[in-house]
Amino acid sequence: MRVCLIGAGLSGLATARALKEKGVDFVCLEKAPEVGGLWRQPNAGERGPGYLSLHLNTAKQLTGYTGFPMPASYPLYPRHSQVAEYLRSFAEWAGLLDHIELDTAVESVRQEDDGSWTVVSRGADGASVSRRFGAVIVASGHNTQPVMPALPDGADTFDGTILHALDYRDGSDFTGRRVVVVGLGASAVDIAADLSRHAEHTVLSVRRGLHVLPKQLFGMSLDEIADAPWWTAMELKDQRRLIEQALLVVRGKISDYGLPEPDHPLFSSAVTISDEILSRIRHGEVTPKPAIDRLDGGRVVFTDGTSVAADTIVYCTGYRMDFPFLPAGCPTGPQGAVELYKRVVAADRPGLYFAGLVRPLGSITRLVEAQAHWIARVLTGEASLPAPEVMRKEIADYLDGIAGQYGQTEGSSTQVSVAHYLEELRAE
Which residues neighbour 274 within 8 Å (Cβ) at sequence distance 6 or greater? Predict the structure, then answer.
């Protein structure tokens, strides 16, 4: 059985290693000219979620691959170029480069009547190639399609530039400009902090409050806390109480910084991790404002009636999954939730797997490695999958189980608890 692996970023390389170790015949198709995913984009000057100020939010010792740690010379939270260099060195060390076809974009993935898969790809020379595989593993990431909300009234009168974070590269590009950043997620706080060192003034427009956590608490990285036995043994309500009390000690209420208080409990959706944004607000370098009400020529008017002069608006409003090469409705169901058995297997499409389509509080690397080892064992016959109806029931039970905590949107349906999810995969 030959396998097609799509993507050579962090998840794709982890999967490639597991396949190689199990002796699975595979080829990895990567549309970029080099391995590394979003981590190599900033230095390459390519359009993408990566930007020059991008650093890891997770500790290097938990983000590196098993048996191949990040260099001791790296800081605890390496910058994008260091992560990209590490991923390239891992691919060389693990002997993966001979299996990877660079500059090869996947155009379509279609299942045949006999259960095999036809993958059509296009190389750098523009030639289209059709190949047959026994299975397909998608590891191309989920930060692909920018989400742009409806622009406010008066957008057609705005004198400046409106862009999405996908097109943001470096704060120095906005030297002397007056910028409004929209959002409070990871990219919004990173970009606002970066801009504040170059722009004439930087405003952070926030519609909905989110929980903002520092990278470390109690002298530990958040992902180290999430991995600690004493943490995983606690009930959710006790975890919330502990962190909420710690945050009050460390930084007080989020509303003390002019930001809206979250309208949802801690750990009921993704948190924003930043050591900088609250400090930049306190130093007067970033000015928080509520949601944008309208645009009026060269001014941005907010819902509280205040306004600022601006010549640039950067929407940091997230991304949605986009797998244009896959059959319609896969892997998301009619309600928008991701529907995969153990967050990996397409129950009704034998031979189709996903790696890295999870969102933990902490590093994703160990989770992807566990997914990859399980996929490899299934492909070699060392592990087996239950009947489709059993997998569909597990999916439904999982989505019902997380509905109360996270909801069942596309993003929330991929949220997992590190320790519990690892236990599930190891049991498989």
Answer: 186, 189, 190, 193, 212, 213, 214, 215
